[in-house]
Design a protein that fits this description.
The protein has helices at about 10-20, 20-35, 55-65, 80, 85-100, 115-150, 170-185, 190-200, 215-220, 250-265, 310-315, 325-335, 350-380, 385-420, 420-440, 445-455; strands at about 1-10, 40-45, 75, 100-105, 160-165, 165-170, 230, 240-245, 285, 295-300, 305-310, 325, 455-465, 465-475. It has 16 helices and 14 strands. With about 475 residues, the protein is α/β, with parallel strands linked by helices. The chain is about 50% helix and about 15% strand. It folds into 4 domains: about 1-145, Rossmann fold (3-Layer(aba) Sandwich), CATH 3.40.50.1390; about 160-270, Putative Large Serine Recombinase, Chain B, Domain 2 (Hect, E3 ligase catalytic domain fold), CATH 3.90.1750.20; about 275-335, no CATH class; about 350-420. A 4-stranded parallel beta sheet has the order 2-1-3-4, sandwiched between helices. A 3-stranded mixed beta sheet has the order 9-13-14.
């Protein structure tokens, strides 16, 4: 039995209960000696939870070794050392069955060679997952109870306060800025204007970054500043607010006035244009800072005009000029006539990059397996390996290579299907070239459909009224 010992410890509590790494390792090695099993690897994970597989590198390595036939038996101290998820457990059991790999647990004495053993294993998995969910419920209940007692739970703190030893303490310099934010909002300033003012004055956020409209909004609406504790902010069914143990830094009367002002402004935030009118809004990118562009509509001489401006400009972090949709349209159509997609690098989606990485991984695995074949041949010639052992090793290696070749072929087929053919590129070229003569008579909704279908990004920069456009096309 080519055995892989898997050991995991997730917390100090488990170590105190006898699940420490040395304790598990000693008992499992002794168990292998008694069973006369060969230990081909010891896989140790420290401080890692058992609730999923993807975040455990040693378990993933063990799985790869099982696929490569280095391991044909797993030994753990206890089932929940392997996983606490029923779904993951079922997947692992099915995987081991397909790979011809046995599973043994020191504590539960599980034998997966029988149907009864496999059923018992799944049953234990249900118990393990129930235990994990119970612990999670207890932790959540503990947090809720702490909040009800007036304790602040976010260890990263909040602007205006410093977090020390479970409590909030007023930060005098930040308190001044918080009150200034509330005062300026009551003066009629917008979130963007307040953020822009703070950025221009080089006043950093709590984490040392730039101010944004969203950051200002979160401060304006945060009752922590009047001595309250909020819990379950993103869960309406569990949300509550209670008195905190910390001092307030904003007068409650001022806070209430600001909330009334927030409500009164909501009607003015409604867009005065339909989404069909905005042709390029979804794809516009600032050529100066790389942020997305906002959209607004204004009236001049009895006509409505759609304009775009970089979000960074609103917050004082970009100096790009705004662009009007009318001028943008003209520039866009002018450059389309010179576009030939056969000379344009059509971006490959991220998924295809992942596919290429997997193909290279399987090819590298095959190179390693072929090296093992050569080593086995030398061992046979030098009479280190018997003929039967050599045949068994070669059979395992060739099966692994064959399996990898199938995976490579499947991935390469998917990759080829995702690429644009020459005919498809020609068809798109024809559509792009023929769109210019009819563009002016198309309704905005049709123009928008064209942009959404063919354009990935429209990078725009307005320099003294001169537009610079860079078009990135979709690959479909």
């Amino acid at each position: 039995m080519k055995t892989g010992i898997y050991i995991r410890v997730s917390s100090e509590d488990q170590a105190k209960e006898g699940f420490s790494i040395p304790a598990q390792k000693e008992k499992l090695i002794q168990f292998c000696d008694i069973k006369d099993w060969t230990i081909n690897g010891i896989y140790i994970e420290e401080g890692i939870s058992g609730k999923n597989i993807k975040d455990r590198p040693q378990l993933l390595t063990l799985i790869d070794d099982i696929k490569n036939k280095t391991i044909n038996n797993i030994l753990v101290y206890k089932l929940d050392r392997l996983t606490r998820s029923t779904k993951d457990l079922i997947d692992i059991v099915d995987f081991l069955k397909d790979e011809g790999c046995e599973f043994n647990s020191f504590s539960e004495q599980i034998d997966t060679t029988s149907a009864t053993g496999r059923m018992f294993l799944k049953f234990l998995g249900v118990i393990a997952e129930m235990e994990r969910e119970t612990i999670a419920e207890r932790v959540a209940f503990g947090y809720e109870q702490k909040a009800r007692e007036g304790n602040y739970l976010n260890t990263q703190g909040v602007y205006g306060y410093d977090y020390k030893e479970g409590s909030l303490y007023i930060n005098d310099s930040e308190r001044i800025i918080v009150n200034e934010i509330f005062d300026n909002y009551l003066k009629g300033w917008s979130y963007h204007r307040i953020a822009r003012d703070l950025n221009k004055r080089s006043i950093p956020t709590k984490r040392g970054g730039q101010w944004r409209a969203g950051t200002i909004k979160s401060i304006i609406n945060n009752s922590t500043y009047i001595g309250k504790i909020r819990y379950g902010l993103h869960n309406k069914n569990k949300f509550f607010e209670t008195n905190g143990k910390h001092e307030s830094i904003v007068d409650e009367k001022k806070f209430i006035e600001v909330q009334k002002e927030v409500e009164s402004r909501k009607g003015f935030a409604t867009k005065k244009y339909t989404s069909e009118d905005v042709i390029f809004g979804e794809v516009l990118v600032c050529g100066l800072c790389g942020r997305r562009l906002s959209t607004n509509k204004s009236m001049s001489s009895g006509k409505y005009y759609i304009k775009h401006r970089c979000y960074g400009v609103h917050e004082g972090m970009c100096d790009a000029s705004g662009v009007s949709q009318n001028k943008l349209e003209r520039e866009f159509i002018n450059i389309l006539k010179d576009i030939d997609l056969s000379k344009v690098d059509v971006e490959m989606p991220n998924e295809n990059h992942d596919i290429l990485e997997k193909i290279n991984m399987y090819k590298n695995e095959n190179n390693i397996l072929n090296s093992k074949k050569k080593k086995a041949q030398k061992l046979l010639l030098n009479e280190v390996l018997s003929t039967d052992d050599y045949k068994e090793i070669i059979k395992d290696i060739e099966e692994s290579i064959k399996d990898n070749d199938k995976k490579i072929a499947t991935l390469e087929n998917k990759l080829n299907n995702d690429k644009l053919s020459i005919e498809e590129i020609k068809q798109i070229n024809d559509i792009i070239l023929n769109i210019k003569p009819v563009w002016d008579i198309l309704p905005n909704v049709k123009k928008k459909e064209f942009v959404r279908k063919f354009i990935k990004e429209l990078i725009v920069l307005n320099k003294n009224g001169k537009y610079q456009l860079d078009i990135k096309f979709n690959n479909n």
